[in-house]
Every structure is written in structure tokens, then in C-alpha cells.
Specification:
Chain lengths: 543, 278
């Protein structure tokens, strides 16, 4: 064997070391797996693929590099698991091609083989995506090629260059692949490639003991990662100004002093670090002033200023890619924080506050319709008294508006539930209106004075039950009693589901109790949900 | 004669596959470090009882390209035309693995790999029909051409008690629009453009089953129908009974959602798949 060259036996040992290192890193790699499907198994799949590769290599007695690489290639091909495993097996196929016919190999040979491996990896994928392990393999191969141009560089230096390039490449993956940026992680497969190469390098450097006592670190991203947000359109606050990030270096910087000074200059201020290095994050309308202040204290590094309106537009674009695109927006009228959340969860774009004692104005409704993120708007008034107001909206906007005449909140919820991504505007309007027909609403509130109504004598403070916002059908001193009495008067044969929405001033235990009593009396499914509505202790939906 | 190959996500029963000469390449289910071949080492029944008892959340993976290449090599001994129909590549790496397997085959044999852009019953009906055409002597171009044209005539609807399994396995796709629903619903999803897609939110299982029945009834001309359950055979029979006048029994296929797909949809799924005629 020529000096500086190693044989197949060493290649095998490099793989064993790389696989052991990968095994230690696998749980972390699983945890950051979001692309192409976030199923949390990239580390395991790469590990299983490598184990299969090693098993085949260990069964062969060949000592030449070419044969060992071939058995690694075949073993990984037979045992490839998942997307990452398939790419890894392609990597080995290319590497084996590069080492074909060689008894032993050095830095130059490795660089050449890595280039072949990168090519094979890309060729193996129908639609290669950058910011994944493909990019990391390619960057590592390019760096190895560059290092091998210097004759003095042997195998260790070339692999060192490849590992360092892989690490840097992993840190860049979120900039290349938006889904990673959004999830706040680097690419799992890329991290796996880095760990595998790093483990092989440990063996060449004679640092096998490191593998025993350490664990591979997940590479940190090179840009501030976005937090996962699940805000709905109605709650989103329009972002403004510039997201400003930099590192400040100097002497005796004083975190508290900097925090105090910057606090007035913007929002979302974060100041971390120590007396010599401080990282600053702030949303500000005048980033120049922030930088001016900071340059007086020391030197600035890694300055990054982004227009948040652009970032927001990008976020919305991402959301659109992830969610079904349908050009219809629903606007609902409701009162109560529980109902607001509920309508949002059903895909309602805007909720206008309003109800029995607080009818929204036409202007408010028009504004909501204008603001809704579509030119086709379905409006759910959810109250008999609001329907006439809602009917005026159509004449006051250029958008296409369909009013579903929902008289109560439960009808509105039934309509929103019936909304389908599979139907167009007109079909949806029809289906949603149809869905309101099978719903009855029972509202429970307290009488505000003594009164004789619908043949019932009602004392002030008594609970009363109102059916479909029309008929007073029961009264009494206990809410649960009134609910049961009302259900008895209604014909509820054919009703399958009762949903009890309890109000802002009602305790959940009391609501659960009423649900229990209904279940004991009738063969129906009962669900309890916090509506948070004022005045009405309960609103019951019967469908 | 054209040999037809598919993957185990097609939910074709071993008996039917045997009868029609369809070769099924199994995907894998992992419980921790244990690996099972879909519907080979682990039966559907065994899987679901384990799914409900096991603390370990199972995961799945595609078959290795080498396994498919071995099968292709074996088939190439008896034929020079192979048609492979895989689950949608947006749901699994199976298509990609099959393409690589194709590249590894050295024997003189034409191999077509088609992404069905669907899964379960939809993939099943395409594969059954393709095998029937192959068995009656159609050549590869003819059968492959038919499959490509028929993909748009396949419609799948699945009803769920929970979307949790789909979310956990990362296959929820655009159906995540239904994830946040705060009321109890039994969502119905479809497969559109190769990925899961939100369709409707019935409030309970009975309404969800009604939705599936109405969906099938909405077609004027049905060539074949697949009805599937996981652990609820009575529900499957009840649904089949409601649909029996729409499709003749010889074109109605009952099946079980297998372990690999079951990992992602859970034990209470019901599904109908329609192949439109014409």
C-alpha cells in the first residue's frame, strides 16, 4: 500500500464509527424531521440503512476498498428505509462507483468518489429539493474536491474539509427550504449526513473514544428561525416596521443599560449575552436609530434587518401552500370568547362581535366583508334581528356576498361545519343553508321582571327556556330543571346530538351536570362546550 | 403477458392478488426497533390489536429499492413486460424506490412504473382492472395507457373518528384545515392531486357513514367499488348493504385497510373508493 492510502478495512471501520455516531444522534435527528413528511423517523431510517450496509460488508472477507464499497452499496440498497435511506443508498452506490477497482484510496480518491456519490444522490430523486441532505452531500463533495487540489492534503484533511462544509451546509438548510424555516429546524437528513461523515472522521483522527462519551450536536441554523404560528386571520395584527437583529461586541457592555435604552425604541425587544458579546433583536420603525446607538457602544456584527411586511407576506404565502386554497371567506356574527374561538376553528375568516342585545351596524358588517381575504363572502348573521342589517351589506360592497339566514348561533355553527373545500361558492351557500334546517336552538336565561308570557307565570330571576328565539316554553328556579322541562315539551325524537354551550357566568361543573342529566334521560350524544356568551346561561343546539 | 406489481398500500387481499396474478411488494411497519413486512409478518388483525395496546407509536417506511429489484428480476425470467402501480408519491417514497429498482434491472424487460396519485381502494381498483386487462392478453402500452387515463376516474373518501393518527404520521396534508375543529366531528377526507384533502365534517359516525353512502350514490355510472374498514366489519357490511343495488357484487370489493396505511389512519376508518365507468 502506498503511503497515505488506506484500504477497505479502514473504510469499513470509518463506516462503523460513522454509524455508531449516527446511532447516538438518531433521536435528535428524528425530532427535527419535518420534510418531506414530518413523521419523525429520518434518524432511525438512516441508521437502519447503514446497519444493513455494514451487515453486508461484515459478511465479506474482502480487504480491498473497491469490494468493501460495493458491499456497503449493495447492503444499503437492500436495507434502505424511507426517503433518507433511499438517498443514502444512492450515495453509497456513487461512492462505490468512484472507488471501483481501487485496492486502497487517499484524499484525492475520496474527493472523486464523493463527487460521484453526490451525482448519484441527485440522479436518484425524481424532483431534487435543495436545502435537504442532497445539498449537504453536494456541498461536502465540493469542499472535498477543493481540498484535494492541494497535494499536501491527505485523506484526513480532505474528509475534514468535507465534514466542515457539511456542517455549514446543514446550518444553511432553513434559508433554502421554507418549511424548515417555518418549523424552526435544520434539515434532518442533512444533519444525518453530517453526523455520519463526522463519525467517520473521528475514526481517522483516532478519536473513537469521543463516540463513547459524547453525542453529536444538532447544527444550529444560520438565521433566526421563525416560530410556529397558528394565528387565524381575524386575530392577526398587521405587522409593521423592521425586524432588526445584530451582535454587538465590546467591553463592559451592560445588558440592563442596553435593554433600558432600547425599550422605548421598539417592540419585541430581546437582549441576551454577556459583557463582551450581546445579541439584540427588536422590531422598530427606525432601525437606523438602533444601529446608531449600538455603534457608540462597540462593533456590530451579523446585522440583519428585514421588512416585516415582507416577512408577513411570505408567511401568508406559506400558509396558503399548506392549506387548501378556496376562494371563499366566511364572516360570522357572534358574542363570547368561546364562540369566537369555535368559529375560528371552523375556518371562519372574520367574527364580528354582536348578538341579541348588541346588533352590529351595517358599517361594521360591510367593513368585515371588505376585510375578509376573498371576493366571495358568506355571511352568517346568527341572530334574527341582525338578518335585516346583513341583507343591506350586498348593496354596499363590490364583493359577492351570500347571506345564510342563520337565526341563532347553533344554526351558524351548523352552517360553518357544513362548509366544504370540495364545493364552489353557490354550492357551499346552498349546502350551508340546508344544514341550518335540522337544528333547533334552546336558550336559557333569567327573567328580568315578573311577567306572564305565553301562558306561563314567570317570577323575576327565574330561568326561562326560549325555543328558536320565538317561544318561551319552560320556566323554573333551577337551570337544569328548566332544560329538562323544555326538552320534554319539544319533540326530540330524531335528535342525535345535543351540544350545551355554557355562558360566561356559568360554571363548567354545572354545565357538565346538565349534560349528565340529559344523557340519563335521552339516547343522544351530548357535548359540552364553553361559549362565553353574556346573558344566556346556556345555549343548546339540538340536531 | 404483462405482469402487474403493486405495493401493499393498495390493500389488495393476498387471495385476490393470487387469483389475478398480482405481485404485492410490502412496505414496512416499525414498532420501535422491530420491523414487520406489511401484511406478511404482521397480519391486519394482529396489527390493530397491537396498535391499541402498544405504548410505542408505530412508524412506517417504504420497501428498499433492492427488494423491488429482486422481484423485477424474478419476473423478468418469465415476462418481458412489467407494470408497477404505486401509492401516490406525495404519501410515500415507494414510487421513487420502484423507479430505482427499475434502473437496477439488467435483464431485457420493459418496466413501467406509474404513480397512481391515490392509495388504498383507489389504487386497488386500478390494479385489479390492470391485472384483468393483462390476463386477457392486453400489452403493456395498452394497460399502462388505460391506467394513466383512469387515474382521474378514481375517487376515494375516508371517514375518521380522529385525525390524530394522520397528523402524527405527517400525512395530514391540506386536511390540517380540519385539525383545529373544536367540536367533536367525524371528518371525511378524500385524496386529491395525490394528497389527503378535507371534504366534510359530519358530527358523528352515523352521519359520516351516511356521507360515504351518499357520495357513492352520487355517481351515475360506476365500474367498480371498493369498501374498506379496519376493525369494524359490521359497519362495513351495513354500508355495503346500502350500496348493493348500485354496483353488481362481482365489481364490489370488500377489504381491510392494512397495517402500513392503518398506522396513519387509525383503527376506526371506513373508506369507499369508486372507479367511474366510461
Amino acid at each position: 500500500m502506498e503511503s497515505g492510502l488506506v484500504d477497505g478495512q479502514v473504510l469499513k471501520e470509518m463506516c462503523i464509527s460513522g454509524t455508531a455516531w449516527l446511532e447516538k444522534g438518531a433521536p435528535d435527528i428524528n425530532a427535527i424531521n419535518v420534510f418531506p413528511v414530518p413523521d419523525g423517523d429520518t434518524g432511525t431510517n438512516m441508521l437502519l440503512t447503514m446497519r444493513s450496509a455494514l451487515q453486508e460488508a461484515s459478511q465479506s472477507s474482502a480487504r480491498d476498498a473497491s469490494s468493501v464499497a460495493k458491499s456497503l452499496s449493495h447492503g444499503s440498497l437492500m436495507g434502505a428505509r424511507g426517503n433518507s435511506g433511499v438517498i443514502l443508498s444512492q450515495f453509497w452506490r456513487g461512492l462505490a462507483k468512484g472507488l471501483n477497482g481501487k485496492d486502497s484510496f487517499g484524499g484525492k480518491d475520496l474527493a472523486k468518489a464523493l463527487a460521484q456519490a453526490a451525482q448519484a444522490a441527485y440522479e436518484g430523486i425524481v424532483h431534487p429539493v435543495e436545502g435537504t441532505m442532497l445539498t449537504v452531500i453536494k456541498d461536502a463533495a465540493d469542499a472535498a474536491d477543493e481540498a484535494a487540489k492541494t497535494d499536501a492534503n491527505g485523506l484526513v484533511s480532505v474528509l475534514e474539509a468535507a465534514v466542515e462544509a457539511a456542517r455549514e451546509s446543514v446550518s444553511r438548510t432553513p434559508s433554502l427550504l421554507p418549511v424548515l424555516k417555518e418549523a424552526g429546524v435544520v434539515d434532518a437528513g442533512g444533519q444525518g449526513v453530517y453526523v455520519l461523515l463526522d463519525g467517520a472522521l473521528h475514526f481517522l483522527r483516532g478519536e473513537a473514544d469521543k463516540i463513547q462519551y459524547w453525542r453529536p450536536q444538532v447544527v444550529a441554523a444560520d438565521l433566526p428561525l421563525a416560530l410556529k404560528t397558528t394565528q387565524t386571520a381575524a386575530e392577526v395584527e398587521a405587522p409593521y416596521g423592521y425586524c432588526t437583529n445584530f451582535v454587538l461586541k465590546g467591553q463592559k457592555l451592560g445588558l440592563k443599560k442596553i435593554k433600558r435604552a432600547l425599550k422605548k425604541k421598539g417592540q419585541s425587544l430581546v437582549v441576551t449575552g454577556d459583557n463582551t458579546t450581546v445579541r439584540v433583536h427588536i422590531h422598530s420603525l427606525k432601525p437606523g436609530e438602533i444601529l446608531n446607538y449600538a455603534t457608540r457602544l462597540g462593533t456590530l456584527h451579523h446585522i440583519e434587518i428585514n421588512n416585516m411586511a415582507d416577512q408577513y407576506a411570505e408567511f401568508i404565502k406559506l400558509q396558503k401552500e399548506r392549506l387548501p386554497t378556496i376562494d371563499i371567506a366566511i364572516v360570522a356574527v357572534a358574542l363570547g370568547d368561546g364562540f369566537l374561538k369555535l368559529f375560528n376553528s371552523l375556518g371562519t375568516a372574520m367574527v364580528v362581535p354582536g348578538g341579541q342585545t348588541m346588533n352590529p351596524s351595517v358599517r361594521q358588517l360591510v367593513q368585515a366583508v371588505e376585510f375578509a381575504p376573498s371576493d366571495n363572502v358568506i355571511l352568517l348573521p346568527n341572530n334574527k334581528n341582525i338578518i335585516p342589517t346583513a341583507s343591506q351589506v350586498e348593496a354596499l360592497t363590490s364583493k359577492k356576498v351570500r347571506i345564510i339566514p342563520t337565526q341563532t348561533i347553533p344554526q351558524g355553527i351548523a352552517a360553518a361545519l357544513a362548509f366544504s373545500y370540495d364545493m364552489d361558492f353557490e354550492q357551499n351557500a346552498r349546502t350551508m343553508e340546508e344544514a341550518t334546517k335540522g337544528v333547533s336552538t334552546l336558550a336559557i336565561t333569567r327573567a328580568i321582571r315578573n311577567v306572564q308570557l305565553d301562558g306561563l307565570e314567570i317570577k323575576k330571576g327565574y330561568f326561562i327556556a326560549i325555543l328558536n328565539d320565538e317561544a318561551l316554553i319552560a320556566s323554573g328556579s333551577s337551570a337544569s330543571h328548566v332544560v329538562l322541562k323544555a326538552l320534554e315539551k319539544m319533540n326530540i325524537a330524531g335528535i342525535e346530538i345535543v351540544t350545551v354551550y355554557y355562558g360566561a357566568e356559568t360554571r363548567d361543573a354545572e354545565a357538565d351536570n346538565i349534560a349528565k342529566e340529559i344523557r340519563a334521560e335521552y339516547p343522544v350524544e351530548v357535548e359540552v362546550f364553553y361559549g362565553g356568551q353574556p346573558y344566556y346561561n346556556y345555549v343548546l343546539s339540538l340536531e | 403477458m404483462v405482469k402487474v406489481v403493486t405495493d401493499s398500500c393498495s390493500d389488495i387481499s393476498p387471495e385476490l392478488a393470487e387469483k389475478l396474478g398480482i405481485r404485492v411488494v410490502p412496505l414496512y411497519v416499525h414498532f420501535g426497533n422491530e420491523v414487520y413486512r406489511d401484511n406478511v409478518d404482521l397480519s391486519t388483525e394482529g396489527f390493530y390489536s397491537r396498535l391499541e395496546e402498544s405504548k410505542v407509536i408505530p412508524t412506517t417506511s417504504t420497501f428498499a429499492p433492492g427488494c423491488a429489484a429482486e422481484l423485477f428480476g424474478e419476473l423478468a425470467e418469465e415476462t418481458n413486460e412489467i407494470l408497477t402501480i404505486t401509492i401516490s408519491q406525495l404519501l410515500s417514497a415507494t414510487y421513487s424506490a420502484a423507479l430505482q429498482a427499475k434502473a437496477m434491472v439488467t435483464k431485457d424487460c420493459r418496466i413501467e412504473v406509474i404513480d397512481s396519485r391515490t392509495a388504498i381502494g383507489g389504487q386497488m381498483l386500478l390494479t385489479i382492472k390492470a391485472a384483468e386487462m393483462a390476463n386477457s392478453g392486453a400489452d403493456l402500452d395498452h394497460v399502462a395507457g388505460w391506467v394513466r387515463g383512469a387515474i382521474s376516474k378514481v375517487h376515494v373518501r375516508m371517514s375518521f373518528d380522529t385525525l390524530e393518527y394522520l397528523r402524527r404520521g405527517g400525512r395530514i396534508g391540506k386536511a390540517q384545515a380540519f385539525l383545529g375543529t373544536l367540536l367533536k366531528v367525524n371528518p371525511v377526507l378524500g385524496i386529491r392531486d395525490g394528497a389527503t384533502f378535507p371534504i366534510a365534517r359530519p358530527r358523528n359516525r352515523a352521519q359520516a357513514t351516511d356521507f360515504l353512502a351518499d357520495f357513492v350514490k352520487g355517481f351515475e355510472n360506476i365500474e367498480a367499488l371498493a369498501i374498506e374498514d379496519a376493525t369494524t366489519p359490521d359497519d362495513l357490511e351495513a354500508l355495503a348493504e346500502r350500496l348493493k343495488d348500485l354496483v353488481p357484487p362481482e365489481h364490489t370489493y370488500r377489504s381491510k385497510v392494512g397495517p402500513v396505511v392503518g398506522t396513519h389512519v387509525g383503527p376506526h376508518v371506513l373508506a369507499v373508493s369508486v372507479l367511474e365507468a366510461g
